[in-house]
Structure to design on (302 residues):
């Protein structure tokens, strides 16, 4: 079976494709260390490896980026028009962020033109990444919510993906509704025994509402709460007695709790604990704090 990386590789400009193939052959665990491939028109391509940025002396034009984007879309940009309007697409198991000029129609963004950058985020299966969160969640009897936070690229999505696998399988398996709004949480590596229902590409608030109404979940897991509308959807779920495990961008707990949507959720008693992720190279450290201010666990590593 052709891996997602091979499929992504086939869409890239030839010079970058050759460079990545050589790096993969010459470095052990290259794919496990590589998390992003960035192309910017008129600027060096950049790889994110072990959390750091590695520029490559390769320049690509806007036309080459547009050709790459078309290949990622299977030469059918129209099929991805809705997600491209939001600045991303989901291709071959990867999320691709797209930079360019917004096109407006009727006062609303209808598409994107003059493509200037592509950010290809490569998913990873990291056994044990969700262990700390699973321990905390089960300590809370799987009845109270968790909020995972870190800066962008800190490992939130990987943690949530592994937590979903763990909570939905085994002797204490729960029915998990996975709201995969950006196409990053679920992949084909989920074991057949997992009790997971996936709502993919739905807006987060709508996905949460639909899962609660139609799927009878025991746990809802979603990524990146960012708006008041999404916070309101989560508050409605709490009223139905379903715990939410979610994530948000923040560098520390103070920054997290200062964000209005998160403050509303805290005031509503949605989360029983917060788990902050700190990345150091290819290692991840976790700080777990209860919502009442005490420590559930101190700084630890998976």
């Amino acid at each position: 079976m052709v891996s997602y990386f091979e499929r992504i590789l086939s869409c890239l400009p030839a010079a970058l494709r050759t460079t990545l193939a050589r790096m993969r052959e010459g470095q052990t665990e290259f794919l496990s260390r590589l998390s992003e491939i960035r192309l910017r028109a008129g600027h060096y391509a950049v790889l994110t490896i072990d959390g750091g940025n590695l520029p490559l002396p390769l320049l690509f034009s806007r036309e080459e980026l547009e050709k790459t984007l078309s290949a990622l879309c299977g030469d059918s940009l129209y099929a991805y028009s809705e997600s491209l309007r939001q600045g991303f697409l989901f291709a071959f198991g990867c999320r691709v962020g797209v930079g360019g000029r917004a096109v407006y129609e009727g006062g609303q963004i209808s598409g994107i033109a003059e493509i200037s950058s592509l950010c290809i985020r490569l998913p990873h299966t990291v056994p044990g990444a969700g262990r700390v969160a699973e321990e905390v969640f089960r300590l809370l009897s799987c009845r109270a919510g968790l909020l995972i936070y870190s800066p962008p690229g800190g490992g939130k999505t990987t943690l949530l993906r592994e937590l979903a696998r763990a909570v939905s399988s085994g002797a204490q398996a729960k029915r998990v509704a996975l709201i995969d709004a950006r196409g990053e949480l679920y992949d084909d590596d989920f074991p057949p025994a997992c009790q997971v229902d996936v709502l993919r590409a739905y807006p987060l608030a709508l996905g949460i509402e639909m899962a609660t109404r139609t799927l009878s979940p025991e746990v809802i897991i979603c990524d990146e709460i960012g708006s008041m509308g999404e916070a309101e959807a989560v508050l409605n779920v709490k009223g139905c007695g379903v715990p939410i495990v979610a994530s948000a961008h923040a560098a520390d707990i103070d920054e997290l709790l200062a964000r209005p949507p998160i403050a509303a959720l805290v005031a509503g008693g949605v989360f029983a604990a917060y788990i902050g992720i700190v990345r150091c190279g290819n290692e991840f450290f976790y700080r777990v704090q209860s919502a009442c201010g005490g420590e559930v666990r101190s700084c630890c590593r998976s």
